[in-house]
Amino acid sequence: MGAYNIDGRFYSLRNVCPHQGAELCKGQTRPLIVSSAAGRYEHERTGEIVRCPWHQWEFDIKTGRMIVDPAMRKKCCEVSVERFDTSVEEDQVVVHI
């Protein structure tokens, strides 16, 4: 289980990449990189994306969905990591399974 704090809200993901089983918690948390034109890149949603340490697959921490180009999503299937509701109770992070 991987628990992430994004702006004071907690999110939890299953700590297994659906591709080949790497521990997602060992991957980097990153911003979403977007492009408005060729050679132009911006960062959005800082700290909301986790990147698999083995093959660099990226997942939205808030939803568990894999980050992929929309054109590729049509050719492929929707891939996601199991996400769990998470709360803070008496100063402890609680994952609701």
From TrEMBL:
Xref: InterPro entries: Rieske_2Fe-2S, Rieske_2Fe-2S_sf
One Gene Ontology molecular-function label: monooxygenase activity
SUPFAM superfamilies: ISP domain
Domain of life: Bacteria
Coiled-coil boundaries: none
Record Pfam families: Rieske (PF00355)
Rieske domain sequence ranges: 1-95
Keywords attached to this entry: 2Fe-2S, Iron, Iron-sulfur, Metal-binding
Protein name: Rieske (2Fe-2S) protein
Range of residues in the leader sequence: none
